[in-house]
Amino acid sequence: MARLIIVHETRYSYERPVRFGQHRLRVRPRDSHAIRVIEAHLSLSPPGDTRWVYDALGNCVCLFEPRGESQSLSVVSRLVIERFPAPLSPDDPHTAMPILYSHEDRLVLAPYIAPETDEEGDALLKWLASQIGPAGEPALDLLMRMTHAIHDGFEYRARHTEGVQSPGATLRLRSGACRDLAWLMIEALRRLGYAARFVSGYVNSGVRRGAGATHAWVQVFLPGLGWTEFDPTNGLAESADLIRVAVARTPHGAAPVSGAILGNPGQSELSVSVTVSPEASAFAA
After folding, report:
1. What 3 state SS string does 125-192 have?
2. Residue 264 gets which letter from DSSP?
3. Tag placement on the chain: N or C end, fewer CB within 10 Å?
4. Contacts of 253 (CB under 8 A, 6+ apart)
5. How many domains is the chain partitioned into structurally?
6. Residue at 180 is within a domain
């Protein structure tokens, strides 16, 4: 078990004053067998009304409506958590193709099996065909091969603008931010009948790709193993370095900060900073 301090700062600045609609903040993990939230503090500017809810996927969401006009919006989350490692089980009796879900599971998993994108053409299918192994191979073998194929074959490029590339664009560019690489893997797996969803959160290591900002990876539902995490950006599976905050069917649904502004902001800038450090070293600093 590791006790960690996470400081996540999101700041928007605008050329002209604007008013704000409701914002949805996904910056607090939900307590689980893998993560326990010890302390949570949220600093918001401009001030406004807040209310915490669980969304339809069980994510902790702060509904925040800033008051008045401002040329900036600041969201600063400070967490103290305990992270309990859950190593990937090597026991996987299920074959990669076809992946078979029970009737009860399929009813719940259906939205995560249906692809979201439909304009990718032959490029995604051709790349996907190159990842398929011999008949009867375990599902974990396919998933680990795809994770490492993206890690080894695509260049990681941090991108601080909002939005996500289509899988086709990521294949053409052979590069992307962590959310782009995760989205490529999700949409590829859905075309094989896997239930896959998008995860946003943090990565606990200064040497990992995606450190210093929010991070994104993939969860795949496997019979007998449940939702299992794969990080194609870093070539990881069920790593204790991954700190999950939110899950969603699409990247937009897991955005750490989303909402509306009212008025013409002119030029705008976004800055995001994340630090993850052991509790002792953070206090010593």
Report:
1. HHHHHCCCCCCCCEHHHHHHHHHHHHHHHCEECCCCCCCCCCHHHHHHHCEECHHHHHHHHHHHHHCC
2. -
3. C
4. 57, 198, 246
5. 2
6. yes
**Do residues 247 and 149 both lie within one domain?**
yes
- In this structure, are 61 and 171 located in the same domain? no
Greatest pairwise CA separation for the chain in angstroms: 61
Around 77, how many Cα atoms within 13 Å sit in the side-chain half-sphere?
A: 26
Distances (CA, A) of 241 to 64, 82, 105, 124, 210: 29, 12, 28, 29, 11
Measured in whole angstroms, the distance separating CA 113 from the mean position of its chain's CA atoms is: 17
Tell whether 119 and 183 lie within a shared domain: yes
pLDDT tens digits along 107-151:
999 999 999 988 666 889 899 999 998 888 889 999 999 999 999
Q: Residue 10's domain spans which residues? A: 2-84+256-284
CATH number reported for the structural domain that contains residue 153 in this entry: 3.10.620.30
Distance CA 148, CA 119 (A): 25
The pLDDT tens digits for 38-54 are 999 999 999 999 999 99
Residues 40 and 139 in one domain: no
| Full-model pTM | 0.91
Q: Which amino acid is present at 25?
A: L
Mean pLDDT across 191-218: 90
Distance CA 266, CA 72 (A): 12
Angle in degrees, 0-180, between the axes of helices 178-190 and 121-129, rounded to the nearest 10: 80
